[in-house]
Write a structure and sequence with these properties.
The longest helix is centred in the middle third of the chain and has 49 residues. The N and C termini lie far apart (101 Å). This protein has four helices and three strands; from the N terminus they run E-E-E-H-H-H-H. Helix 2 crosses helix 3. By secondary structure, it is mostly helical. The chain is rod-shaped and about 125 Å long. Strands 1-2-3 form a three-stranded antiparallel beta sheet, with no helix packed on it. A hairpin with a 3-residue loop joins strand 1 and strand 2.
C-alpha cells in the first residue's frame, strides 16, 4: 500500500479538492489546506499551519493543568489503611476457602476409612474391630499374670539344646 492510495475495498476514498468520502458515501467537509502529507520546510511554515488550526494549539500544556495535588500525611495514612483493610479481607477470604477445603478433606477421609473397613471386615466392621481390640486386651492381661520368669528359666535350656542340634546337623 502506498502513501496516497486507499487501504482497500470499502475503505475511504480520498478527494484532495473537496474533502473525503467515507465508506458509506458521506462527504465530509475538510479544508484541503489543513491536510498535510509531508513535513514542513521551515519553522515559520509550521507556525502558520498551527495558526490555521486555531490559537488553542499554541497555548502551552501547563495552562490546562490545575494546581498540583498536595498529598497530606493524613491522606497517605488513609490510603495505607484502605490497602491494609483490602489485604485483610483478601486473607480472610483465603482462610475461609482453606477451612472449607480442610472440612472436605476430613469428611472424605472419614468416608474412605469407613468404606475400607466395610471392604475388609464386612458388615458392622467397627463392632468386629472393637471385639478384636477387646480380645487383644484380655490376652495381654492373661500373659502378664503368667509367671514368665519360671517359664523362661525352664524353657531356656530346651531352646539352647534345640539350636545346638540344628547347628550340629548343618
Amino acid at each position: 500500500m502506498f502513501k496516497d492510495e486507499p487501504a482497500g475495498v470499502g475503505a475511504e476514498q480520498r478527494h484532495d479538492d473537496v474533502g473525503a468520502r467515507t465508506a458509506n458515501g458521506e462527504e465530509t467537509s475538510i479544508n484541503p489546506e489543513l491536510i498535510r502529507r509531508e513535513g514542513f520546510a521551515s519553522e515559520a511554515e509550521y507556525e502558520a499551519y498551527l495558526a490555521t488550526l486555531g490559537q488553542d494549539a499554541l497555548i502551552p500544556a501547563d495552562a490546562y493543568m490545575e494546581e498540583p495535588f498536595l498529598v497530606s500525611e493524613e491522606h497517605v495514612l488513609e490510603s495505607r489503611l484502605r490497602e491494609l483493610r483490602e489485604e485483610l479481607e483478601n486473607l480472610q477470604a483465603r482462610l475461609h476457602v482453606i477451612r472449607d477445603q480442610t472440612a472436605a478433606v476430613v469428611t472424605e477421609n472419614v468416608r474412605w476409612a469407613d468404606a475400607s473397613a466395610h471392604a475388609q471386615l464386612g458388615n458392622q466392621p467397627w463392632l468386629k474391630l472393637a471385639g478384636a481390640m477387646a480380645a487383644a486386651f484380655v490376652i495381654t492381661r492373661g500373659i502378664r499374670r503368667l509367671p514368665l520368669g519360671t517359664v523362661a528359666t525352664t524353657a531356656l535350656p530346651l531352646v539352647v539344646a534345640a539350636m545346638n542340634r540344628k547347628f550340629a546337623r548343618g
